[in-house]
Amino acid sequence: MKRILTIFAVLCLGVNAGAQSVPSLLIPTDSRALGMGGVSYLPGNNKVDASAFFGIWAPGTASNTIVGADVRFRLGSKLSFCLGGKDFIDKPYEIINDKGASVGAYKPYDMVFSLGAGYDITDAITAGAILHTVSSSIAEKANGGAFFADVYGAYKGNGWTAALALRNLGTKINYGGEDNALPALVALNGSWSPVSGLKIAAEADYLFNEALMAGAGAEYCIANIVFVRAGYHYGDAQKALASFASLGLGAQFAGIRLDASWLFASKNLGDSILVTLGYAF
Fold first, then answer.
1. Is 52 in a helix, a strand, or coil?
2. Is residue 174 classed exposed, middle or buried when 0-12, 13-18 and 19+ CB atoms within 10 A define those classes?
3. Is the Cα torsion angle 179, 180, 181, 182 positive or negative in sign?
4. What's the pLDDT score for residue 1?
5. What's the pLDDT at 43?
6. CA-based R_g, the chain, Å
7. Is residue 120 pLDDT above 80, yes or no?
8. According to a count of CB atoms within 10 Å of the terminal CB, is the N or C end of the chain lower?
9. Residue ranges of the domains in the chain?
10. How far apart are CA 125 and CA 162, in angstroms?
């Protein structure tokens, strides 16, 4: 019988999820959000908004790869839809047999597909839901899957926004032993634009495993072309996404945008990067 020597993905991600699984679901995959301390970024009112992203997560300890793409489009003035997919690919580990010989390598992964819809109840109030399916593998014979959903409501005022969301609510995942819960949480966030071009945002998350996360950040826009971002995320590395500071830079022209974020001041996640290329009209 083969015995597998590995550091589980929860350690590679800077997360110790306890009885929870698939901690990669806590990682922001929007470069704009990650550059502002992981504060969720509310979508705009573009008719079509498509993007693709690539990242290296925890290069000093795990060097995991993040790849994905998503698209959001509006039908009429009130209804919007989104769909996307992303893959968190862990660093391969060596498989050793009972005689101590190497018999190959295995690359764990978490693959997520999403489909959602939103509705503008009024010009200021929006509500919606996103359905997801995840296929996860942590070892050659340890695979599992689950279905889950996010539900949210948002209010857009004059120069400020507020949103409440429930995320990662769904079935448990089983890799061949006991059932494990996904990292479900409730999130409250908001933003404020005190002057033209400046946005300040913050978010607080409560995970159902009794962990807390919080983030705050700012974005400054220059001539509606260049965007400079900075933020800080706090998290308990034993139960949630570890703490980090972040910087971000973006540019947009003729509907095309390029955004990048970089993490620092974190033992586990320092030098992680995420780059997004998008187009909207």
1. strand
2. middle
3. negative
4. 35
5. 84
6. 19
7. yes
8. N
9. 3-280
10. 10
